[in-house]
Amino acid sequence: MPPPLRCTSSLPSTCVKQLCRAGQSTRSFSTTPRQDQRITRNRRQLFRWLGSQGQNFLNPLNGSTNYLGAYNAQGQLKRVVEAAAEAERKKKKEEGKANEPANSSASESGESEEAKEFKGEIPPETTRDLTPFPLNKSFVSQPVLSDDLREEIWKRVMQDGKSVRVVSAELGVEMSRVGAVVRLKEIEKEWEQTGRPLAKPYHEAVMSMLPKTPYDPTGRTNAKPHESINDLPVHRKTGTQIFHPTSESRHFTREDAAKVFDERLLPADLRVPHPELAEMHKDYKAGLSQEERQQRQMERDEIAERKRQRAEAKKAKKEAAVKKVDTGRVEFRFTEISVDAAGKDGRGFKGVGWRYGHPHMDRSRGTVKIPTSVE
Amino acid sequence: MTRKRFHGLKRVKIRATWNKYNLFNLSRLKAPRTNFMTYYQQKWSAKSITRAYHGEHIREGQWERMFTPLLNSVIPMDHRYLAEHDGSEQAAGRGSGLEKPMDLNKIAFGRNQVPYMHMTYAPIERRLDTAIFRALFASSVRQARQFVIHGQVKVNGKKIPYPGYLLNPGDMFQVEPDRVLFATGAPKIKVKAQAEKLRYERRISRQSNITRDAALARRAERRRAKEAKELADDTIELAPRQPKSAPIELGDPEVRKLRQKEFLKLIRQIEDRIGNKKVRRTGKRKQELRVLLRRAKANVIFIGRKSLQELDTEMKEITQELLGITEEVESADKAPVKRLKPESEMSDKQKEALKRAIARIRENPADTTKPYATPWRPRPYMSAFAFIPRYLEVNHNICSAVYLRHPVARPGLAEVPTPFPAETQQLAFNWYLRRR
């Protein structure tokens, strides 16, 4: 590619605008020559923009988000302009009903003025107004949990003792997010108790700049849930296009489709995070009574509980096999190992300790020493 | 070779910062014109502009190792659909006339496409420094990186000084709240610097008289030099006069460091008082304050030549004298001060409001020792960049966040924040794909 053109600073310029900025250095002790900051057209444009359209972004908009995508080229909020136009149209319609001959020229000239002087409350944002990057419509600033909703999640899990899965389904929040909210809330409460100062002003400022999902305690209004909780991750094996001939009469289900992609791939029903929701809906569709449905749900819960207990017992057994010696400062953990684990050639990955002729790789050059996980 | 500008106006590169230059560049960013360019040139320029935003501080080789052509995505499933259909309905009726003919007008092309190409730089979002920037704890990725290196960041309660640590789903990271307040708060402005800036901006707006400004600059230079000289002269007379032969016992260096800190705090206090123009002082009072300031400064300058005891007595004397000078704050406009009603006369509503106002002041106090403007307020132009992607759950009260999962794309939405259109991202993706 050809080298980009740059204006050379060595050429003497006759233009007054091009002269160096003769400001004094802010550091009296500095001996380095100042980088000459020219007052270029770009720079002038920058300051003009900062003084006009850019003024909108200097401070947060009261009670609303304030992204680039929400403004038009003139620096007006698009939704305000639209609302003003809508109001104008309505007004005209009413006037038109009252007296047919309306002087159109006068109202047209006043329309742009109207947009500026629109003094209603700012209308709520649409998806268009939530794009921080105007060229990328695929990235939208999605709402975060409001303070009330977070408190409610913490309450339901920690005080009411509900499981994360249930709370997630009730409030329409991902399970991992429910867990994270509780974890963070616990720390916050601990800080409050110990008197460690919270960054309250910062929190309030940030929350005022972000879109939020409010908590509706009545739960009656059909508000949009925070996020979709039943996200099916796209499996790598399903990326291929497969031509699979099968008989017309065959009842070809999702399970069969999964088998075609891979022998061990589970069907979508089992790979979603909340398979129990579909089960419950199946019971409902089957026309079971309330009691029966509850009974079946309880059975399912019991099975899940038994599974969980088994896993826990397994984990406890593994933990019990480790002999622990607590010296007060450190806890030594002794695990039974076998010498034979090193294998015939002494290089088995389960083998421990130094083995002759087999170098440790932890000091070698070129390998990344950054830990890959903490705890 | 001169360093290239990070936020250039001419050679425009969009950066991962909250800078106002960056905002201006974003506002005038246009999709690159790719006609008249070869495919190679298109790919090169796309990679060049996208890499300037996504991990420009990461070496190219390092990024190439991180790059993967496997892009994560999810499809939201409706549990009611899963319960009511087993998937066989997709194939039912094919060829038996039950199938409706395809109507091209009814198909919404691209409406629900998964924007895979926006996920090109997803691996970078896993880095600790980037995640801190995305959680709004730092005003740029480079600042976030600095916080990590300086040991201000913990992952799962453990200090991790590696900005390149790749977060695992479920990892919690915490940043020191004071650093976050510094990074996101409005800068502390010195009055002089502000005046200078104002003057500069005014000059820009009218593109004016260069000679006059040069004269002003020279005058300011002279004044500053004079001040510096005066300070040097002042402190010299306060230097401890001791024969070189008698060495002083320095004592514990830690204690000495602590004393120095105390003196610096004292100096700031005295300077605050001098700077407070709301107080009317006599000339003598002003002189006294200035003498105290000089004494305190001399102590800091000659801290190595004084014993600990001397420092202690000096400290005590200066504080006592400072406390002795009592001052009354008077209102600026001399109008009768608007006093609140005594609490007994207030209504319940007013009492509540008063209580809230007091609480607000208490949790956001004015404190000149902080490196940011107090009471804290968000820095300018922050709101245009304030968004939190869904793969993070952030609690700003404690400046902590949890990395929930890796970013994914879903129909119509991609979770990797990027200012570039899909075409540019696709070209960049192809650039990196080339070498695989």
From TrEMBL, chain A:
Annotated region Disordered: the residues are 89-134, 289-316, 355-375
Matching InterPro entries: Ribosomal_mS45 (IPR021036)
What are the Basic and acidic residues biased-composition ranges? 89-98, 113-128
Question: A single GO BP annotation from the record?
Answer: mitochondrial translation
One matching Pfam family is Bot1p
List the source organism: Hyaloscypha bicolor E
Drop me one GO molecular function for this one.
structural constituent of ribosome
Q: Which residues cross the membrane?
A: none
Gene Ontology CC terms, in alphabetical order: mitochondrial small ribosomal subunit
Q: Where is the composition biased (Low complexity)?
A: 99-109
Q: What is this protein called?
A: Ribosomal protein S35, mitochondrial
From TrEMBL, chain B:
Q: Where does this chain mainly localize?
A: mitochondrion
Residues forming the RNA-binding S4 domain are 126-186
Top-level taxon in the UniProt lineage: Eukaryota
The record, for InterPro entries, names: Ribosomal_uS4 (IPR022801), Ribosomal_uS4_CS (IPR018079), S4_RNA-bd (IPR002942), S4_RNA-bd_sf (IPR036986)
Q: Name the Gene3D superfamilies on file.
A: RNA-binding S4 domain
GO terms assigned for molecular function: rRNA binding; structural constituent of ribosome
**Coiled-coil residues:** 308-335
Q: Matching PROSITE patterns, A to Z?
A: RIBOSOMAL_S4, S4
The GO biological-process annotations, alphabetized, read as:
ribosomal small subunit biogenesis
The entry's cellular-component GO terms read: mitochondrial small ribosomal subunit
Keywords, ordered alphabetically: Coiled coil, Mitochondrion, Ribonucleoprotein, Ribosomal protein, RNA-binding, rRNA-binding
Tell me where in or outside the cell this protein is found. Answer: Mitochondrion
- Which PANTHER family does the record match to this protein? 30S 40S RIBOSOMAL PROTEIN, SMALL RIBOSOMAL SUBUNIT PROTEIN US4M
The function of this protein is: Component of the mitochondrial ribosome (mitoribosome), a dedicated translation machinery responsible for the synthesis of mitochondrial genome-encoded proteins, including at least some of the essential transmembrane subunits of the mitochondrial respiratory chain. The mitoribosomes are attached to the mitochondrial inner membrane and translation products are cotranslationally integrated into the membrane.
Give the similarity note. Belongs to the universal ribosomal protein uS4 family.
Under which name does UniProt file this protein? Answer: Small ribosomal subunit protein uS4m
Source organism of the structure: Hyaloscypha bicolor E
